[in-house]
């Protein structure tokens, strides 16, 4: 035993050996730092640490990114809806706020901030969620978002087979019971849709429109909602295009709001000024959800969209190929009726314009704008609806006089509503004031202009130039293509 102890190295010898090894390690580290670039070092370290972690760890992580290839990830959407319902006192931090400007005292909405952990229990499994956000260094590229779901390796298959389908069903139930609709606008600087609560009071009940036209629109919407199998059987995308056209103030925006409330669809209000090019347009449009309305107002004001494609091509040839065309008509058509139209279901695409004649014929054909709704000037029936709404009366001895004037004066429902609102607390005075307003407009137009228009309409009727497909009235028509 004594001889064995004598053979062991002394403490000073061990200390000297340790010092030599430390010096050698520092020398090797210095040489490696000089020879191997920093990015390569980080890559080697991440791979090495990852291998060690995977070997010794008993956990498995699912990563769900916000986009899946070229479209928005529907699994990510479902998780966004589901996870706020799993917030409990153990959550370490929360994102709270409100986007309802009409009710500042409404209860705060809760959401998941970046790097916050949410614990969920499902069928005896403990599951940990974390939202990760990677900010982009380019303003036109959106931030990268993804959820991490950590579970035990032993329950990985169970999570895939039972937990993810459970999230999808719960999200669908939550969305079907939503009380508030949202209206979205696209933020070009942040490259994402931003929402606000949509609480427009317009409904088909309050809408001032010819009863026949109103019922036709409601019947068409009901038919669209119940024809999922039909669209699949005939090989068409489950969508419907509407064109609302007519003079300003005839109720186009109110009709859009009434449709949204009737269908319980969110609205995506797209302004082409915020879109850079066709590729950007595809990414923006594929970020919209199912059961929604894509609204493109005053499409005739977007010159590159409304004018004929031949003119655009001629202009590009004159200015040179280097000119960026921006958003083109072809890019829009490819989404609403091309191969990209299949990226989504149960959608309404609504265009509005004051000048239908300025639109390219390619936009107007069936499959793109399936329903053409003419929003015209006020008629006696529309006036009575407005009088009931604003004055609370259904009949008056002066209504006959107003009927005769409205038939000969072009006045929009918006103008009628404004006149009735001035003295809404005194119906008699309001009606008298409205008659004076109509007479003033009649004098401005002049009897000769009115007679000329009447003669022109009569001649067109005799010549049979009006389309038999139109069920025209002075207040509007619906044209189903």
From TrEMBL:
SMART domains: AAA. CDD domains: RecA-like_BCS1 (cd19510). Its cofactor is Mg(2+). Residues 448-481 are annotated as: Disordered. The keyword Zinc-finger does not apply. It catalyses: ATP + H2O = ADP + phosphate + H(+). It comes from the Eukaryota. Pfam families: AAA, AAA_assoc, AAA_lid_At3g28540. GO terms for biological process: response to stress. Residues 238-379 form the AAA+ ATPase domain. InterPro entries: AAA+_ATPase, AAA_N_dom, At3g28540-like_C, ATPase_AAA_core, ATPase_AAA_CS, Mitochondrial_chaperone_BCS1, P-loop_NTPase. PROSITE patterns: AAA. Residues 456-473 have a biased composition (Basic and acidic residues). Belongs to the AAA ATPase family. BCS1 subfamily. This is AAA-ATPase At1g43910-like. It comes from Durio zibethinus (Durian).
């Amino acid at each position: 035993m004594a001889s064995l102890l004598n053979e062991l190295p002394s403490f000073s010898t061990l200390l000297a050996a340790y010092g030599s090894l430390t010096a050698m390690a520092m020398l090797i580290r210095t040489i490696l730092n000089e020879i191997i670039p920093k990015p390569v070092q980080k890559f080697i370290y991440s791979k090495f640490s990852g291998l060690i972690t995977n070997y010794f760890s008993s956990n498995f992580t699912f990563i769900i990114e916000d986009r899946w290839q070229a479209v928005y990830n529907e699994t990510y959407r479902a998780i966004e809806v589901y996870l706020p319902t799993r917030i409990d006192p153990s959550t370490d931090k929360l994102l709270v706020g409100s986007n309802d400007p009409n009710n500042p005292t409404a209860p705060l909405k809760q959401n998941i901030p970046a790097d916050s952990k949410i614990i969920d229990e499902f069928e005896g499994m403990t599951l940990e969620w974390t939202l990760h956000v990677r900010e982009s260094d380019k303003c036109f590229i959106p931030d990268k978002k993804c959820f991490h779901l950590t579970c035990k390796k032993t329950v990985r298959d169970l999570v895939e087979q039972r937990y993810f389908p459970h999230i999808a069903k719960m999200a669908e139930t939550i969305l079907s019971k939503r009380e508030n609709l949202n209206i979205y606008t696209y933020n070009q600087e942040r490259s994402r849709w931003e929402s606000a609560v949509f609480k427009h009071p317009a409904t088909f009940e309050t809408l001032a429109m010819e009863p026949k036209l109103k019922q036709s629109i409601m019947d068409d919407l009901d038919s669209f909602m119940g024809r999922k199998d039909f669209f699949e059987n005939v090989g068409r995308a489950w969508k419907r295009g509407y064109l609302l056209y007519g003079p300003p103030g005839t109720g186009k925006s109110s009709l859009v709001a009434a449709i949204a409330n009737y269908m319980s669809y969110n609205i995506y209000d797209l302004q082409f000024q915020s879109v850079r090019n066709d590729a950007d347009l595809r990414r923006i449009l594929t970020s919209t959800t199912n059961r929604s309305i894509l609204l493109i107002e005053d499409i005739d004001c977007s010159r590159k969209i409304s004018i004929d494609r031949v003119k655009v091509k001629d202009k590009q040839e004159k200015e040179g190929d280097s000119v960026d065309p921006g958003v083109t008509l072809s890019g829009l058509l490819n989404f609403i009726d091309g191969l990209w139209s299949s990226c989504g279901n149960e959608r309404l695409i609504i265009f509005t314009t004051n000048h239908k004649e300025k639109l390219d014929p390619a936009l107007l054909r069936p499959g793109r704008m399936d329903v053409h709704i003419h929003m015209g000037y006020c008629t006696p029936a529309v006036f009575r609806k407005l009088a009931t709404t604003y004055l609370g009366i259904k009949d008056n001895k002066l209504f006959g006089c107003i009927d005769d004037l409205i038939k000969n004066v072009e006045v929009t429902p918006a103008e009628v509503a404004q006149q009735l609102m001035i003295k809404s607390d005194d119906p008699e005075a309001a009606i008298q004031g409205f008659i004076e307003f109509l007479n003033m407009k009649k004098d401005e137009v002049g009897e000769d202009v009115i007679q000329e228009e009447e003669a022109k309409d009569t001649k067109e009727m005799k010549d049979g130039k009006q389309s038999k497909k139109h069920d025209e009235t002075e207040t509007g028509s619906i044209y189903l293509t």
